[in-house]
Amino acid sequence: MLSVMNLKTLYQRIRETGTIGKSPEEKKIIVLVNTLSLFTGFFALTLGPLLAVATKQQGIMFPAILEGMAFVSIIFINRAGWNTAASILMLVAQNFSAFYFGLLFGPMTSSALELLMLCLVSASLLIFRSLTIRVATIALAIIGVVAFELNFKRSFVTPLDLSIENQYIVRWLAVGTIFFLNLVVIFQYVRQTDKTKELEIANLYKTLYLQETSHEIRSPLNAIFGISQLLLMQLEKSKQRGRDKIELNAILPLAEHLYAASYSVRGIINNILDLAKIQKGKTDDITADHIEPTEWLKDIVNTHTYISKQKNVKIQLEVDRRMPAVIIADAVKLMQIVNNLISNAIKFSPQNASINVSLAPKENTWQLRISDEGPGIKQGFEDKIFDAFVFEKVDFFESTGLGLSISKRFAELMGGELQLESTGDKGSVFLLTCPLQIGNKSRVQDLKPTIFESEYKDLHVLIIEDNLMSQMIISKFLTEMNCIISVAGDGREGIDLAHQQKPDLIFLDTHMPVLNGLDALKEIRKSSDLSNIPVVVVSGDAFKESIEEIMVAGANDYITKPVEFKQLQHILQKYFKEEPHH
């Protein structure tokens, strides 16, 4: 005997017959047609013979069996891939069966026919997208009901002569069966409606997420744009004054802030991928970076200062003298948290307000407190502001709570806590508390690129990159280390140059015309005279799957754009510890 589990599996397989390789929309239609055909065929093959025996009317038996076999065959038609034909045949068969048995049983099945008409109209709307087919199937159902009513009045066909008891049996079996088929259609409609609502909500969340991410990127991007203009203005002033030398005191701070802002943008982009992992339920890897908290926090505040000046908002930074010079934390996630908190403070602050950012140790933790002079959080929203996609509107700003939600998750991942410490008419105070781990000064990762006397003179490097700006940046970096540079604009040109010049090292982009990076890499590894050359892939594709594919294909290293000078230094140190000899 079949167990309940086996029956469920068999039912599922029948419903999904013919759905392999189909689109989600096509699958829905096939499943609905198969389900209606399965149940109609089942009822015809079981209830038809039983009713024939009960009423002693053989005119019911064979038509019911033929009807059942017809509906079973529709499932096989779907399996053969003729899905439109199966859908049309199912509705035609339903109409023909209803018309035949309606004439056979007469007025006792009128209410069942009305239910069936509703079922067929609903089913045609769910199954077909073509207006012509929809109108045709609906018209067919209406014609069947009209023909039945005309027969009822004119008696063209005489119904079966059944006893009152048998008439009740036929009536309730017909009503029950067709009511059940209506439920199948309604259930499918509700599922599609719910799925549509889910997609609408997901689309709303995506829009809000893009709005928040866009804002987070625009803050440091605005600083980059503004500082770039200031640098050009300073250079133009020097040119107009006829000075050969640039005023370093004017240029250097701008260049430092420019780098800090661009570094912040890179951190935000990295965290977009981190959030995707969190939403998929994956555990993020926490890095143990050695950070100088005072200098690190100054860089972040400097980035936001350019934004706050637009509203005449002043950011005050206070670092407690007891704060260790170096701490251990995840620099990228921590930067995302602080960026979100300061960005929110600026957004909610009125004109000419102040924001206070303070950092201090407390027992075995360190605490970052950020306070603003905004309108505060409305009563009742204190616990909701950390929920994703909470939408709140104030007089001068509209915002989503996505940034706070991300920040709270990152704080918890680092073993800390982010909370709303207080709120009121004079502003809000957010408190980030994290475990205090004292770091090592020698292991601090300096954000500023360092320049030293290079030992890579005469090292020949081939850059295969189609983007002119990326070509320029990598070439300038390598020139600082006295490397000999060759540049190719696509994979095919790069392969040809590599065969001609036999470089010591190849930097390879992935997305290029003519021959992409992956295919170029495969050719390099198959070539007897190029296979031993180290290949470092430099790409804007930061997805794990893409990186794994490239590394499996034979890349020695992978650098994600934007490229840092020190990354190239480390690559050269790794493969060429001494000056190469030719």
Keywords:
582 residues, alpha/beta, Heat Shock Protein 90, Rossmann fold, five-stranded mixed β-sheet, five-stranded parallel β-sheet, 59% helix
Give a structural overview.
With 582 residues, this protein is α/β, with parallel strands linked by helices. The chain folds into three domains: 11-162, no CATH class; 251-443, Heat Shock Protein 90 (2-Layer Sandwich), CATH 3.30.565; 460-575, Response regulator (Rossmann fold, 3-Layer(aba) Sandwich), CATH 3.40.50.2300. It contains 16 helices and 14 strands. The strands form four sheets. Strands 2-4-5-9-8 form a five-stranded mixed beta sheet. Strands 11-10-12-13-14 form a five-stranded parallel beta sheet, sandwiched between helices. Strand 4 and strand 5 form a beta hairpin.
Briefly summarize what is shown.
Helix content is 59%, strand content 13%.
Task: Please give the alpha-carbon distance between the first and last residues.
Answer: 80 Å
Question: For the CA atoms, what is the radius of gyration?
Answer: 36 Å
What is the name of the CATH superfamily of the largest domain?
Answer: Histidine kinase-like ATPase, C-terminal domain
What is the overall silhouette? elongated
Give helix % range.
Answer: 55-70%
Tally of strands: 14
Structural class based on helices, strands and sheet pairing = alpha/beta
As a percent range, the share of strand residues is: 5-15%
Total helical elements: 16
- What topology, given as strand order, has the largest sheet? 2-4-5-9-8
**Could you tell me the mean pLDDT?**
77
CATH topology of the largest domain: Heat Shock Protein 90
The CATH class assignment of the largest domain is Alpha Beta
Low-confidence residue ranges: 391-401
CATH architecture tag of the largest domain: 2-Layer Sandwich
Work out the count of structural domains: 3
Could you give the order of the helices and strands? HHHHHHHHEHEEHEEEEHEEEHEHEHEHEH
Largest sheet: 5 strands, mixed
